[in-house]
Design brief:
Distance between the termini of chain A: 63 Å
Strand content of chain A: 5-15%
Oligomer: heterodimer
Radius of gyration of chain A: 21 Å
CATH class of the largest domain in chain B: Alpha Beta
Distance between the termini of chain B: 174 Å
Structural class of chain A: mainly alpha
Largest interface: A-B, 65 and 85 residues
CATH architecture of the largest domain in chain B: 2-Layer Sandwich
Number of domains of chain A: 1
Number of strands of chain B: 8
CATH architecture of chain A: Orthogonal Bundle
Structural class of chain B: alpha+beta
CATH class of chain A: Mainly Alpha
CATH superfamily of the largest domain in chain B: Histidine kinase-like ATPase, C-terminal domain
Strand order of the largest sheet of chain A: 2-1-3
Helix content of chain A: 40-55%
Radius of gyration of chain B: 42 Å
Largest sheet of chain A: 3 strands, antiparallel
Shape of chain B: rod-shaped
CATH superfamily of chain A: Winged helix-like DNA-binding domain superfamily/Winged helix DNA-binding domain
Shape of chain A: elongated
CATH topology of the largest domain in chain B: Heat Shock Protein 90
Number of domains of chain B: 3
Number of helices of chain B: 9
Order of helices and strands of chain B: HHHEHEEHEEHHEEEHH
Chain lengths: 125, 394
């Protein structure tokens, strides 16, 4: 055994992703798209024995709609793993889902410029 | 007178007498000679005996010197083997660790691609086992065991150990204790637990569950591994106990072919870091009950948020101590100068029984939030004005 100062730090993730998923099949990308929105259903209580990841999702999604990508980012987990956890919660009725919003319509540049000028004219702050 | 001389009997007697005298004289002489030769022989015998004793002494000293020489040579060979293995396997262990870190990145990168991610997870699983094996041999040969720089909850230590064995899906973790293992002991405890889980899954029927229970005891906590195998016979138990108590001072060439490093490794790590491992109990399912007892000195206070974002713990305490819902922390992130999105501070967040702690989840998440690539994208695309978020604005 090396003395403590010789010890190299272990940098890999401590809990591996396949353990978090329990080795289960991942849901398809279409099930909860990257930009789909999720939010905790009202009046739900955390299932007993929830994993730390589920508890973190619970915290995150209690505050309002959040995209799948955001949840994954906050958890520091791969999107696919997060998607599995989210779809579990959704299947149990704990989570409300909303399809991703349609992409913004192309607004003509002159209108945007007008809005910008208008805002500038307001001269806030 | 003549008649006397003429008596033949007298002559006969005389002849007999002379013969007798001669015989006696001769016998005496022979006797003296025999005595002399006996004395000589006796002397020689004593000398020979003395020489024999000398030889015996010399032989025993020679053989003991030979034995000690042999022992020394064996030790030299052992340490030479260990040194070679340590360096060779150490390189492999470092590479395995690098590969796992790389796989973490790749899984993030291709996280949205289901098939890629699933395949990467398979590679990750074999990589983790590979890493455990190489680390184990390396440690037994005096090499390093990567050190974790953060405390980890007992639950996460158990899950980490679970991920390092082949049949990880058979492991069930029942953790009641909300206790963390201090950073120094995180990796060794996970390693030993993984070895015990490996044994438990290997020596029980495929498909039968292996359970981890966490039991607080007055001197710390016990991690209890129960399998539903056939248990160990007395010989195996004795051998396991001696390896576990050896402190790792074992000849690695004596561990069989293929070598079984598990108990020797566990003994070494337990002795070095100061926890205790035993495998002599019987599980409620009839198999082996293995117990790791981690003393209080290797434990830390309860963790409020045991896992996920703890990876990004920062030590700044710029936020007030008020418990803030995680969700509120993402406020203010904008993309491309768009209006800031805000979300309600939900009272419902208190659902999570969080215990007071010096490590605010806030800091952790604030740090995380700032680093998220996905965030900006999510913010930009995840909302638009008609998304009924109005009442949630602050």
């Amino acid at each position: 055994m090396s003395s403590p100062h010789e010890e190299t730090p272990a940098t890999s993730g401590f809990v591996r992703s396949y353990v978090i998923t329990g080795g289960r099949t991942l849901p398809s990308e279409g099930e909860l798209a990257l930009h789909a929105l999720v939010c905790l259903a009202p009046g739900r209580t955390l299932p007993p024995g929830a994993s730390p990841e589920v508890r973190a999702i619970w915290d995150l999604c209690a505050g309002g709609y959040l995209s799948v990508a955001e949840v994954a980012g906050h958890l520091g987990l791969p999107v696919g793993v997060t998607r599995l956890l989210l779809s579990d919660l959704a299947d149990q009725g704990h989570l409300l889902r909303r399809a991703e919003p349609p992409p913004a319509q192309g607004v003509p540049r002159p209108i945007l410029e007008k809005v910008l000028h208008g805002l500038e004219a307001l001269n806030i702050g | 007178m003549t008649s006397l001389f003429a008596d033949p009997l007298l002559w006969v007697l005389l002849v007999v007498l002379i013969a007798a005298v001669l015989a006696v004289t001769r016998a005496r002489r022979t006797n003296v000679q025999l005595r002399a030769s006996n004395n000589t022989l006796q002397g020689e015998l004593t000398t020979a005996r003395g020489q024999l004793t000398d030889l015996r002494a010399r032989h025993s000293s020679e053989s003991s010197r030979h034995a000690s020489d042999l022992e020394e040579v064996r030790k030299d060979a052992e340490s030479a083997t260990k040194a070679t293995l340590k360096s060779a396997v150490g390189t492999l262990a470092t590479l395995a660790e690098e590969q796992l870190a790389l796989l973490d990145e790749l899984q993030q990168k291709y996280g949205d691609h289901r098939a890629f991610l699933a395949d990467l997870m398979l590679v990750d699983h074999t990589g983790s086992q590979f890493s455990r094996r190489t680390k184990g041999i390396s440690v037994l040969c005096g090499g390093w065991l990567g050190r974790r720089d953060r405390d980890a909850s007992v639950y996460d230590v158990a899950r980490s150990a679970q991920g390092r064995i082949r049949s990880f899906e058979r492991v069930r973790i029942h953790s009641q204790a909300n206790v963390a293992v201090s950073s120094r002991a995180v990796e060794p405890v996970a390693m030993v637990l993984a070895e015990l889980l490996d044994n438990a899954t290997k020596y029980s029927a495929p498909g039968s569950p292996v359970e981890i229970n966490v039991q607080p005891v007055p001197t710390g906590i016990c991690l209890i591994v129960d399998d539903a195998g056939l248990g160990m016979d007395q010989e195996t138990k004795t051998r396991a106990a001696s390896l576990l108590s050896s402190g790792g001072a074992v000849d690695i060439t004596s561990l069989g072919d293929p070598p079984k490093f598990g108990f020797a490794l566990s003994g070494k790590l337990a002795a070095h870091y100061g926890f205790h491992v035993s495998v002599d109990a019987v599980s409620p399912y009839g198999g082996v009950r293995a117990v790791i007892r981690v003393p209080e000195s290797l434990l830390t206070a309860e963790l409020p948020t045991p896992e996920p974002v703890a990876l990004d713990t920062s030590h700044e305490d710029e936020e007030e101590d008020k418990p803030t819902p995680i969700a509120s922390l993402v406020i203010g992130q904008t993309a491309g100068g768009l209006p800031k999105r805000r979300r309600r501070r939900g009272g419902a967040v208190t659902v999570v029984p969080s215990s007071p702690s010096e490590h605010g989840a806030d800091d952790v998440n604030a740090e995380t939030a700032s680093r998220l690539k996905a965030f900006a994208r999510g913010t930009a695309l995840g909302r638009d004005s008609d998304n009924t978020e109005g009442p949630q604005n602050q």
